[in-house]
């Protein structure tokens, strides 16, 4: 008795006659859609490119090499693609070289130093209901635009 009830529980609950069958009718469109899933479109606006280098602080000592915008852009790419710091540095460096914009990527040590400041800014934006709908530089993914963070 126990074996028979166990077999009944193991069977599919969907009747084979009514099971939905998925068939591809438009193979050309399906092929293009599969290829497009791997497409990534990135752009950098002129104002974002100009904001990549920080303004001189006017203080004595070494000046900052990267603005908060550059650091937050690298950390956003890291978050989106789930990369460790060194790989995020290399990924951004390769993107900037492919785009030919002449900008430098922040190194992983700088990213690690600034990571705690960015975490608090991101958590503040999440708590205040920030939805990223403002118009500013962003990353275009397959289905949506992921806005890049900015420093208020």
Q: Please report the distance between the alpha carbons of the first and last residues.
A: 70 Å
State the share of residues found in helices, binned by percent: 40-55%
Backbone shape: elongated
Give the count of structural domains. Answer: 1
Largest sheet: 3 strands, antiparallel
Average pLDDT across residues? 75
* Strand segment tally: 3
Separate helix tally: 6
The gyration radius over C-alpha positions equals 24 Å
Report low-confidence residues grouped into runs of 5 or more. 130-146
What percentage of amino acids are in beta strands? 5-15%
Strand order of the largest sheet: 1-2-3
Instruction: Provide the succession of SSEs.
Output: HHEHHHHEE
Commentary on this structure:
Strands 1-2-3 form a three-stranded antiparallel sheet, with no helix packed on it. Residues 130-146 have low confidence and may be disordered. It has 152 residues and is mostly helical. The protein contains six helices and three strands. Helix content is 48%, strand content 5%.
């Amino acid at each position: 008795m126990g074996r028979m009830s166990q077999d009944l529980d193991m069977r599919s609950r969907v009747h084979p006659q009514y099971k939905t069958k998925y068939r591809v009718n438009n193979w050309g469109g399906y092929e293009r859609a599969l290829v497009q899933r791997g497409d990534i479109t990135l752009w950098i606006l002129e104002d974002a490119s100009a904001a990549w280098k920080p303004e001189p602080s006017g203080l004595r000592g070494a000046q900052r090499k990267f603005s908060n915008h550059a650091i937050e852009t690298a950390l956003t790419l890291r978050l989106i693609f789930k990369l460790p710091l060194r790989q995020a540095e290399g990924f951004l460096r390769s993107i900037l070289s492919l785009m030919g914009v002449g900008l430098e990527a922040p190194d992983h040590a700088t990213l690690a130093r600034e990571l705690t400041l960015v975490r608090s800014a991101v958590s503040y934006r999440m708590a205040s209901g920030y939805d990223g709908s403002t118009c500013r530089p962003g990353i275009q993914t397959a289905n949506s635009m992921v806005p890049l963070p900015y420093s208020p």
